[in-house]
Amino acid sequence: MSDAIRFENVWRRHGAKWVLRGFDFAAPRGQVTALLGRNGAGKSTSIRLLMGFSEPQAGCVRVLGEEAAKMGGAVRERIGYVPEDHPHLFGLKVGQLLAFEASTRSNFDVEQVTDRLAELGLGSKQRIGSMSRGMRAQVSIVVALATNPELLVLDDPGLGLDPIARREVLESVIDTLAERGTSVLFTSHVLSDVERLADRVVVLHKGVTYVDASLDALRTRLRRGFLEGADLDVAAIEQRAGVLAARRRRGGLEVFAEDDATFESLAQLGTLDVGPCPGLEDLFLGLLSGSRRAA
């Protein structure tokens, strides 16, 4: 079975700046994949390429086995898409919005959406423009799921939401996934949400894939060590074989690596305490905030 999404050596620039520089990754069908990266890393550009809104200068993006740049209506109807900030036609009422969406997609299930929105306390006469941001997020996701898509793409669905609203939005996705086994790609700045939802994590950094692994593999494989010594050179430590990242902390350096030999080598430089990486946020900050990553 082919992957739900595949980026193959994708290059894309904005003006003179290359945003993607040979980006490669594949999202397996039936899994939840989180696409992470710092601001400006190329996440939104990747989503636009994936949805066929723009084309790469080189390489290929494939969605459900088809080239994204040549995506036709039949393939697009198999994809649910929730754009960043949940834009809608604010002047419309809920019922009018659903009628509009149904007119653009042949398999749009109006009855299913109406029932789901009613469960959320949203009636057909409620105006979109009068809703809170959290309510609009709920509407976005319910509408995206109305075609029973094979693939759901969410661009930072919890952006700007308070913790309660954000959890409610994501739990609605989780419930749907459990029932349907839908493939999902989502971006997020809230790493605790990624840990609850994702099967796989792809970290995009400076236009290339920096990490591509299952969440379980990351937790099992990567470890964090603390090397004591105020005079240690963080840049020199990062250049050592096997070191993924290092950053200065009070009294020494925090080092991320994935093999015993690397830590045994570092132990020769001073007192070293090694343990598991406590969470995705620590791992993410460690990998992307070191001097080599920020250069």
Compile the SSE list and pairings:
Elements: E1 5-14, E2 17-27, E3 32-36, H1 43-50, E4 58-63, E5 66-67, H2 73-76, E6 79-82, H3 94-104, H4 110-119, H5 133-144, E7 151-155, H6 163-180, E8 183-187, H7 191-197, E9 200-205, E10 208-214, H8 215-221, E11 223-228, H9 234-238, E12 243-249, E13 252-257, H10 260-266, E14 272-276, H11 280-288, H12 291-294
Parallel strand pairs: 3-8, 3-9, 6-7, 7-8
Antiparallel strand pairs: 1-2, 1-4, 4-5, 9-10, 11-13, 11-14, 12-13
Helix pairs in contact: 5-6
Structural overview:
With 295 residues, this protein is an alpha/beta fold. The radius of gyration is 22 Å and the shape is elongated. Helix content is 35%, strand content 29%. Mean pLDDT is 85; it is low at 291-295.
Keywords summarizing the entry:
35% helix; elongated; 4-stranded antiparallel beta sheet; alpha/beta; 295 residues; 14 strands
Rounded mean pLDDT is 85
Radius of gyration: 22 Å
Shape: elongated
* Order of helical and strand elements: EEEHEEHEHHHEHEHEEHEHEEHEHH
Beginning-to-end CA distance, first to last residue = 40 Å
Write out the strand line-up for the largest beta sheet, numbering strands in chain order. 6-7-8-3-9-10
Q: Helicity, in percent? A: 25-40%
Question: Biggest sheet, open or closed, and with what strands and sense?
Answer: 6 strands, mixed
Residue share in β-strands: 25-35%
**What are the segments in which pLDDT stays under 50 over at least 5 consecutive residues?**
291-295
Total beta strand runs = 14
Helix/strand/pairing category: alpha/beta
